[in-house]
Amino acid sequence: MPTSYSPYWNPKNETLPRDELRALQLYKLRNLSEWAYARSPFHRRRFDAAGYRPAQLKTLDDLRRIPLMTREEWMASQLERPLFGDLLATQEVNAIRYHLTSGSSGRVPIRVLDSTKDWEWISELWCYGLWGFGVRPEDVVYFAFGYGSFIGFWGAHYGAEKLGALVIPGGAQSTENRVRQILEMGVTTVCSTPTYAFRLCQQATEMGIDLATDSRVDKLIVSGEPGGCIPAVRRRLEQAWGARCGDVAGMTEIGTLVVFECAHQPCGTHIIEDHVLEEVLHPERGEPVGYGELGERVVTSFGRAFMPLIRYRSRDMVMKVPHTTCGCGRTSDLYAGGIRGRWDDMQLIRGTNVYPRAVEEIVREHDAVDEFQIYIWRQDDLRDEITVRVELKPNRVAEWPELREKLAAALSSAHEGLRFNVDQVACGTLPRFELKAKRLVDGRPMTARGG
Ligand SMILES: [Zn+2]
Question: What residues contact 56, with CB distance under 8 A and at least 6 apart?
């Protein structure tokens, strides 16, 4: 018998009036701040240097007395005192799990430890997101995920179990086997990156399978890249899968998801404000920006006690909008368009800012495109050039001449007339990604890179 469920995982907190929500945040921030000052040498050192004491926290605005925390400081501490630096607020022996960042772009990976209690919190937050998008105990949830040291969907796995769904860990196996498993097990919900959701469709097509009609999948939950909130990407995924597509986002530094899209699909993500405090600041000047303005996401997590994160600069590009933007009844604010990429991804080409997400929005409007790559290079050691390399679907290559012109024109007009080179590459030559897609390749000499 189908049961009638609340649309909210935590009906009380998710609909709390804003003033009560802010009071709850202040209470949790005080606790966190005291905990970190007393237990984490990293935070005590930084609080002392900034002349901040937890007792100074009288209102939520006093938050700004707390110094911002950067990845660089954290990494410096890790390198000085391997393996974990002095951020830990409790002894290593209390940990039950070790994870690290995917280590993309050749940076030092962030190493994290979590306790049993931290993991309970991590799965609880995933429950807000999974339940909020409509996952119920009757669902069969498939994780197209490698289950390695990268934290990725680990928390989502536990969240789906916690809410009572049947979980299928689609770990290390071929894409072909994953497609078979999705059909065989009557999977209703698939969790992956947007890029890998496309890859599964391509594989299914090669196997003569139409996932939209041959599978039971009606929910696609994507994470790890900005694609889930790019309208063209979403539309194509929803058509190919015959399913609703929802965006969620988290980060290894927090261990879990912190924003999720609800079943109303506002093309934006609710912030789980009873568990995290999210500020949006000007990326250079550091002052708060208002609703509807782009800024950098700065995050404080109330739940991860082992490694407290307080006013951590994520470098993520976001735009906050009020909760009333969505009609679901939640009182938590949203990020319109989800997480829009990273401020560090911005490229300066001959004086014009180019964001990979903006390029993707345009390229994905064209259904004939299978995969693409943005290549930046230097002409005659002098002038920066940008080339979009496009791989077409095998049965659509005849459309190239017309498509090339359309793309060049659309890309240029969206970038103050900047000239884009648009090249075709042979089918199957561009890299495919399972975790975080890296579609921007910078071929300029190191000294010439801007952005
Ligand atoms: Zn909503």
Answer: 62, 65
Q: Which H or E element spans position 80?
A: helix 71-80
CA–CA gap between residue 227 and residue 54 (Å, rounded): 39
Kindly report the number of other CB atoms within 10 A of residue 286's CB atom.
13
Cα of 129 to ligand 1 centre, how many Å? 11
pLDDT at 289: 97
Class of residue 58 by CB neighbours under 10 A (exposed 0-12, middle 13-18, buried 19+): exposed
CA of 186 to the centre of ligand 1 (A): 28
* Alpha helices per DSSP H over 353-449: 356-363, 400-413
Tokens of 58: 């009288």
CB 244 within 8 A of CB 262: no
How far does the centroid of ligand 1 lie from the alpha carbon of residue 43, in Å? 35
User: Can you tell me the distance from the alpha carbon of 182 to that of 230, in angstroms, rounded to the nearest whole number?
Assistant: 25
Q: What is the DSSP string of 147-165?
A: -SSS-TTHHHHHHHHHTT-
Of the pLDDT bands very low, low, confident and very high (cuts 50, 70, 90), residue 107 is confident
Paired residues of 352 in beta bridges:
349
DSSP 8-state class, residue 94: G
Q: How remote is the CA of residue 326 from the centroid of ligand 1, in Å? A: 5
- Compute, in angstroms, the gap from residue 261 CA to the centroid of ligand 1: 7
pLDDT for residue 451 is more than 60: no
Mean pLDDT check: name the lowest of 77-81, 89-93, 217-221, 350-354.
350-354
Residue 83, preceding peptide bond in cis (omega within 30° of 0)? yes
Tell whether pTM > 0.90.
no
Q: How confident is the model at residue 184 (pLDDT cuts 50, 70, 90)?
A: very high
User: What does the alpha-carbon distance between residue 70 and residue 235 come to, in Å, rounded to a whole number?
Assistant: 36
Q: Which two tokens stand for residue 65?
A: 């007395």
**Phi, psi at residue 392, to the nearest 5°?**
-90, 160
The DSSP letter of residue 244 is E
Instruction: Kindly state the average pLDDT of the residues 100-111.
Output: 75
Residue range 111-130, pLDDT digits in tens: 999 999 999 999 999 999 99
* Edge-to-edge strands, sheet with 369-379: 421-425, 383-392, 369-379, 440-442
**Phi and psi at residue 135, in whole multiples of 5°?**
-75, 130
Q: Distance, CA 328 to ligand 1 centroid (Å)?
A: 4
If we measure between CA atoms, which residue out of 83, 90, 85 comes closest to residue 74? 85
Predicted pLDDT of residue 106: 63
Six token digits for residue 281: 């600041």
